[in-house]
Write a structure and sequence with these properties.
The structure holds 2 protein chains of 2 kinds. By secondary structure, chain A is mainly beta. The N and C termini of chain A lie far apart (33 Å). Helices cover 0% and strands 59% of the residues of chain B. Chain B has no helices and 11 strands. In chain B, the strands form 2 sheets. In chain B, strands 2, 4, 5, 9, 10 and 11 form a 6-stranded mixed β-sheet that branches. A 5-stranded antiparallel β-sheet of chain B has the order 1-3-8-7-6, with no helix packed on it. The N and C termini of chain B lie far apart (40 Å). The chains are: A mainly beta, B mainly beta.
Chain lengths: 113, 113
């Protein structure tokens, strides 16, 4: 597809379970970002990748959160032992190179019950 | 701490009126300033990416200015229309982390018919 694709669009999980959120960036985009957006807040930075490597993961809230991008394209955000406070919209974006705009996916709405 | 501040948080404007809102960011280590529009149930969409002090950019009825020395940007909307109702996000990237993009909380704009 032409845009950034995120799956699933909605995910409801029980507290304590493991979840994986997937992001398919625009083909050829080297930079990939994960953000979390809670109600009334702006997108909160989690991690970004340049190619396969995490260039900055300082926004990951704790060691329950982990993200990979093994082939420099698709990325997976993994959350272990989910908590109710993890409920949010998780946004993915990709970018071609510096000083260009980022393109966002539609987000995954995660609800932990 | 590198914060992006946006004001006001929320704004109601009569259809046909013009309006503007502010983004402030750290003036040191500036690299680029982004504006995005985020409509309900859609992905954030880039409006502008600006890098140079004094930059002014325009897209239709929307324009933006940039002052990197004092650390602020203004977004202007001329002759507001109902389709302008959205959250406007400002984001900042900085030297030495030039692909890390930090967002403000946004200004929620409501156009009143």
């Amino acid at each position: 597809g032409a845009g950034v694709s995120q799956t699933p669009s909605n995910k409801v999980t029980e507290k304590g379970k493991y979840v994986e959120l997937r992001c398919d960036p625009i083909s050829g985009h080297t930079a990939l970002y994960w953000y979390r957006q809670s109600l009334g807040q702006g997108p909160e930075f989690l991690i970004y990748f340049q190619g396969t490597g995490a260039a900055d993961d300082s926004g990951l809230p704790n060691d329950r959160f982990f993200a990979v991008r093994p082939e420099g394209s698709v990325s997976t955000l993994k959350i272990q032992r989910t908590e109710r406070g993890d409920s949010a919209v998780y946004l993915c974006a990709s970018k071609l190179y510096m000083n260009t705009e980022a393109f966002f996916g539609q987000g995954t709405r995660l609800t932990v019950v | 701490i590198l914060n992006v501040e946006q004001s006001p948080q929320s704004l109601h404007v009569q259809e046909g009126d013009s309006t503007n809102f502010t983004c402030s960011f750290p003036s040191s280590n500036f690299y680029a300033l982004h504006w995005y529009r985020w409509e309900t149930a859609k992905s954030p969409e880039a409006l502008f990416v600006m890098t140079l002090n004094g930059d002014e950019k325009k897209k239709g009825r929307i324009s933006a200015t940039l002052n990197t020395k004092e650390g602020y940007s203004y977004l202007y909307i001329k002759g507001s229309q109902p389709e302008d109702s959205a959250t406007y996000l400002c984001a900042f990237s900085f030297k030495n982390r030039d692909d890390k993009i930090i967002f403000g909380k946004g200004t929620r704009l409501h156009i009143l018919p």
